[in-house]
């Protein structure tokens, strides 16, 4: 049984939830059934790990991130309450459905096209269990395409995408790979707000082509008030938030593959996230590279905090 399942059981036992059977508490296999039995949850964030790193153009360490993020969430050095006051031990706030077995699937000879379909179908399975909403642990940023595709298809329409990143990730096919982590948003492109500080001529051209609103770090001081008071999701099925850990200045998160100085502070990101007005239906935290997290697991804790606060934003 997962750590989150055990902690959730402990929390629910403290609630003396008479309407939840002891068998359901002990087995905890069907997270949606468990949350529905507790009652009172309109939306519950549900962790789904996608440990994929082979589409990274530089280092493949993000494949090892999901278990390190989970470990940091529950390491005991901080409490389980988010800044909004939601307790992650409550299964109505956070559940965990485990990882997609990426390496095992690849070992069977499955190509990237089929692998992306597997990821999409895994996300749809999570969304079958109302009120669960997927909160995906990457992995490199190539996972965002199949996840966003699945969310949009499952909800029956487009979603607004808030993409926080040091890079636009909108190359048509970086180094010939249409599924590169640098091409994920060329595959998505419904129209999104993007925080960028490392952008090429092609990146700007792609944004113009797809009608994407981009906000670069060099103008962040000017745009701060707008970006910290976003209102998204009108006329669409909701809001998807994709957080690449390298959107943060490396002073806050050195454990990433692509280190770009001059980024957001951790509080900048939380202000954008917490003040956002809109129905957040799913999200991901990607590109944490444990192999470069040399400062005593600091970036793991940063990634975990991002997951915790994003979980609070999704859960209702």
From TrEMBL:
Cofactor binding annotation: Binds 2 manganese ions per subunit.
Residue ranges crossing the lipid bilayer per the database entry: none
Source organism (scientific name): Trifolium subterraneum (Subterranean clover)
Keyword presence, Secreted: no
Pfam families named among the record's database cross-references: Arginase
Pathway connected to this protein: Nitrogen metabolism; urea cycle; L-ornithine and urea from L-arginine: step 1/1
EC number: 3.5.3.1
Binding site for Mn(2+): 141, 165, 167, 169, 244, 246
Reactions that this protein is recorded to catalyse: L-arginine + H2O = urea + L-ornithine
GO annotation terms (biological process): putrescine biosynthetic process from arginine, via agmatine
Domain of life: Eukaryota
Record family assignment: Belongs to the arginase family. Agmatinase subfamily.
Protein name (database record): arginase
Keywords assigned by UniProt, alphabetized: Arginine metabolism, Hydrolase, Manganese, Metal-binding
Database matches in Gene3D superfamilies: Ureohydrolase domain
Molecular function GO terms recorded: agmatinase activity; arginase activity; metal ion binding
């Amino acid at each position: 049984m997962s750590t989150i399942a055990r902690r959730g059981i402990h929390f629910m036992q403290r609630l003396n939830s008479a309407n939840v059977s002891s068998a359901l508490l002990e087995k905890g296999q069907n997270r949606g059934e468990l949350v529905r039995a507790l009652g009172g949850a309109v939306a519950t964030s549900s962790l789904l790990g996608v440990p994929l790193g082979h589409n990274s153009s530089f280092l493949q360490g993000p494949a090892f991130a999901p278990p390190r993020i989970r470990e940091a969430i529950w390491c005991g050095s901080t409490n389980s309450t988010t800044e909004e006051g939601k307790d992650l031990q409550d299964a109505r706030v956070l559940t965990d459905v485990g990882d997609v077995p990426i390496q095992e699937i690849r070992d069977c000879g499955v190509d990237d096209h089929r692998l992306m379909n597997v990821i999409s179908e895994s996300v749809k399975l999570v969304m079958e269990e109302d009120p669960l909403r997927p909160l995906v642990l990457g992995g490199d940023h190539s996972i965002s395409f199949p996840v966003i595709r699945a969310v949009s298809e499952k909800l029956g329409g487009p979603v607004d995408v808030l993409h926080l990143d040091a890079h636009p990730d909108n190359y048509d096919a970086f180094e010939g790979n249409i599924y590169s982590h640098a091409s994920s948003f060329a595959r998505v492109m419904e129209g999104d707000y993007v925080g960028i500080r490392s952008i090429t001529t092609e990146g700007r051209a792609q944004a113009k082509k797809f009608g994407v609103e981009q906000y670069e770090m060099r103008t962040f001081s000017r745009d701060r008030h707008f970006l910290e008071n976003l209102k998204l999701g009108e006329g669409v099925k909701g809001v998807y938030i994709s957080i690449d850990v390298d959107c943060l200045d490396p002073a806050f998160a050195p454990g990433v593959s692509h280190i770009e100085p001059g980024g957001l502070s951790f509080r900048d990101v939380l202000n954008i996230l917490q003040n956002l007005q809109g129905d957040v239906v799913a999200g991901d935290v990607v590109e944490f590279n444990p192999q470069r997290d040399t400062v005593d697991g600091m970036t793991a804790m940063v990634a975990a905090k991002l997951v915790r606060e994003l979980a609070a934003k999704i859960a209702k």
